[in-house]
Amino acid sequence: MDELAWKRPTACGDGNNCPEVAVTSDAVYVRSSLLPDAVAQLTPDEWRNLVTAIRQNEFGL
Fold this sequence. Notes:
alpha+beta; 3-stranded antiparallel sheet
């Protein structure tokens, strides 16, 4: 995997327990700043569906 440009929500500030996302033309990569070697790879459609589900509170969080 090439070097990815990881981004985290601004709400995290300098916290060490934050989600991080890297977007390429073919995939979206997601990881936790606590476990940076554990990376999930999603297709753009899977990412879009996940974000939609979170926004619609489908996980009851």
